[in-house]
Amino acid sequence: MNKLSRRTVVALFGATSIAGCLGIGSPLSSNSGREPPDGIPVAGCDTPPSWPTATGPAKRTGQTDIAFRAEPRSNELGGTDDRVFGQTWVVASNDHVFWLQDKETTIRRTHTETGNTDTLSLDHASRVSPTLACGRLAVHTYAGVSWVDAETLEVVGTTPTASPHVSSLADDRLVYVSGFNDSLQAYGADTGEPEWHLSIDHFVTGLSSAQHTAYVVDASADGGEVLSVDTQTGEVQWQTDVVGESYTNPVVGADVYTFDNDGTVHALDTDNGEQMWELTTEMTSPETTPAYRDGTVYVADDASGTVTALDAETGERHWQTEIPRGDTDGRPTGTLTSPVCTPEFVLVGASPGGLAVLRRDTGERRWQNGTYSFSSNLAVTEDAVYAVANDGIVKLKP
Fold first, then answer.
1. Which residue(s) pair with 56 in the sheet?
2. Which of 47, 65, 183, 307 is deepest in the core (most CB within 10 A)?
3. What is the pLDDT of residues 250-260, one digit of tens each?
4. Is the pTM of this model over 0.70?
5. CA-CA distance, 105 to 327, in Å (whole number)?
6. 120-124, long-range: CB within 8 Å, 24+ apart, which pairs?
7. All domains of the chain, ordered by start, with CATH?
8. What is the pLDDT of residues 50-60, one digit of tens each?
9. Greatest extent of the chain over all pairs of C-alpha atoms, in Å
10. How far is CA 285 from CA 68, 98, 321, in A?
11. Cα–Cα dist 182/333, whole Å
């Protein structure tokens, strides 16, 4: 049976009826009736967390400077009473790792030094991945954003919103929250007070920021656009509909890189939004985004079980490596995480297949630890990589 894209499914059955089943979002009127509040309870951004979103800092490039000199050593930390299945998200500071499952209410916080795990139960289930923002863990649920103090693990405030399509985001100056009357609201990171809001045509389905510019994906089953927004004023600098319907966060490198809903990677010029190149893949997961480092884009394609390195300016392929399920099974794996780029290596989690470490220059598979099957993204601190397996959080230390 041929695999249908989400665009095809929506076209066949209708956006309103199928959206909730696909996890894309609720009906197209879901943003109506929510006004942005006068402030949010953030505590300032003096020390940025090491891995504030599922794909790293606000550029979402998946970059880290952690050094791997030998095969990673794995150590199982915080466990759970029940086995973990399905999509799980991990974000991290150097002191704590926070992890929670899609559509669940329990937040788990594991201490990086001791491995002890604390829990907090929310009133509503998570809807998208969490974000560490200015001393707070922002958990966007079906009812809005719960702001959790990262040190005390207590809810210090809530922001009612419509059911979100993308998590909140923080950069050096602003915190961005979606779900208000078809708009994106920016708040001051130090004050929590409103700075500007951006009206959109559909839904905010992707978001990143870099160098005084935010890149916003505005999409639904009817199509979509990518917008470049001046973060000082909230004014749109350019917008393009070349990508169309998309539910992934853009990655900011030499250009802006994002998947559309049919699995094609688009490279857009940061100055004007012009498409520089595109590459067709079989990628279907909105959670898996490209990574970027030093003029190269790395794409994990879980449909083919491969990681591909592309020239960031031309889209030309440098190498492609298949990730096997394990030492005794040479078949390609079925699920891959977004890549993480160190100065020498590309890291990718697989289920099944564990952690694969590839040389950045050649794609050679240097190591693969297949002990665990990871159901989450990889999160990186200054000295370790964290991911969630069936029995709980796992620490992989170089």
1. 53
2. 307
3. 999 999 999 99
4. yes
5. 36
6. 120/148, 120/153, 120/154, 120/155, 122/146, 122/155
7. 6-28+47-397 (2.130.10.10)
8. 999 999 999 99
9. 57
10. 28, 22, 19
11. 39
